[in-house]
Amino acid sequence: MANIIEITDVTSPHLDLFARLTEAQLRSRVEPEKGVFIAESPKVIHLALDAGQVPVALLMERKHLEGQGKEIIQRCGEIPVYTADREVLASLTGYPLTRGVLCAMKRPKLPTVEAICAKARRVAVLEGIVDTTNVGAIFRSAAALHMDAVLVSPTCCDPLNRRAVRVSMGTVFQIPWTRIGETPADWPQVGLQRLQALGFRSVAMALSDTAVGIDDPRLMVEDKLAIVLGTEGDGLAPATIAQCDYTACIPMSHGVDSLNVAAASAVAFWQLRARAPL
User: Fold this and answer.
1) Who contacts 79 (Cβ-Cβ below 8 Å, separation ≥6)?
2) Which of 49, 29, 31, 26 is nearest to 179 (CA)?
3) What phi and psi, each to the nearest 5 degrees, are found at residue 140?
4) Which of 177, 231, 236, 245 is least buried, going by the fewest C-beta atoms within 10 A?
5) 164-185 pLDDT, tens per residue?
6) pTM assigned to the model
């Protein structure tokens, strides 16, 4: 039976998960097994549950208890379901809830790079991308446009950030992903060597006089390819570009030099997808 709790005190410490803990505190890097993340909107929550994510607590507008939140409550078992009117919840969280539902979930243990790349042919690698919207959009493109996995560098934004999860439309739960190293020292040299050992060739998406177009035949026929995307503004680090097997760019027109990294990822993923079985 659902444990419905009417919010009478927005300062209650039981609500800290949804209102007062920073993303870093939610991650709990010191004790990752105690970390949580926030899934927002019924669709995203359902996808997370489908993927086996473990719910901890729900925050829901009262009107959704018998509406679009009813099935979620039934799926989540006897966890606390905190509820109030929309205005109260907005004053608690500081923003209107997307479709009126938030779910705090336990952070999953991430797989190893070797595990998620074992059967992969195309992987996206995100280096130092810090904008949560871009990370979410890249995950959505990766899932939709035939990437087998996503790897994020130690300095990349957390893909389980609330906004990144929401922008990804829950695809962060549908495509395998993990971190390629825990500290900045693990990337790029160590990380690229791990990919090389797994049989991957790497292509740096970067503006360069020596870059080939993403339709270059050599890229198209690679059996295993890691597509490496860099941070907003500065792009990939020179050391990363130097250590990749290829450098490629998207041909532009009308004097435009580049696309936003999220838009560029979609173009690159589609063009460089695996064409035929090994």
Assistant:
1) 3, 55, 56, 57, 58
2) 29
3) -65, -45
4) 245
5) 999 999 999 999 999 999 999 9
6) 0.90
Angle CA 97–101–105, to nearest 5: 115
Band of residue 103 on the pLDDT scale cut at 50, 70, 90: very high
Considering only CA atoms, which of 102, 97, 42, 48 is closest in space to residue 72? 42
CA dihedral sign, ordered 251, 252, 253, 255:
negative
Please tell me the distance from the alpha carbon of residue 168 to that of residue 41, in angstroms, as a whole number: 12
Mean pLDDT of all residues in 200-228: 94
Torsions phi, psi for 97 (to 5 deg): -70, 130
Six-digit token string for 151: 């790897």
Q: Residue 236 and residue 194: Cα distance in Å, rounded?
A: 18
Tokens read off for 6: 């009417």
Per the CB < 8 A criterion, the answer to whether 266 and 145 are in contact is yes
Q: What pLDDT is recorded for position 114?
A: 97
3-state helix, strand, coil in the chain (%, to 5): 40, 20, 40
pLDDT digits (tens, 9 = 90+) for 253-273: 888 878 899 999 999 999 999
Give the type of residue at 278. Answer: L
Q: For residue 149, give both structure tokens.
A: 């996995």
169: left (phi over 0), alpha (psi -120 to 50) or beta: left
CA distance linking residue 202 with residue 200, whole number of Å: 6
Predicted confidence at residue 8, as pLDDT, reads: 80
DSSP assignment, residue 161?
S
- Residue whose pair of structure tokens reads 């009126």 in the numeric block: 100
